[in-house]
Give the backbone structure.
Amino acid sequence: MAETPEWKVKKAVRLLLDKLGIYHFMPPANGFGRAGIPDIIGCMDGHFIAIECKAGKGHTTALQDRELNAVLNAGGTVFIAREHNIPDLELLLKEKQNELRGL
C-alpha cells in the first residue's frame, strides 16, 4: 500500500498511541459503517478518544464534524491530527492520562 500523506499521519498517531500504551483501532472504511466515523478510535484508562487524521490543509467534512461533536458531547476527547501537531497530541494525551489517574 502506498503511503499517502494522510496515511503517514495515521501511522504517526498509531505509533504514538502504541508508545503511550493506549488501546486503539482504525474502523474499516468499507461503506458498511456510519459515515464520518473518526479515523482512529481509542480508550485510555476508560476514557474514549477519537482522532481524525488530515494531511496538509485538509478539512473535516460535515459528517466528520457531526461525529467528533457527538464524542465531545458524550464526554470523550477528540483531536484532529496533522503532520505538524503530533507533539501536541502527545501532550494532550499525557495530560489526560495524568488527570484520569489523579496525578
Remarks:
- The two ends are 41 Å apart (CA to CA).
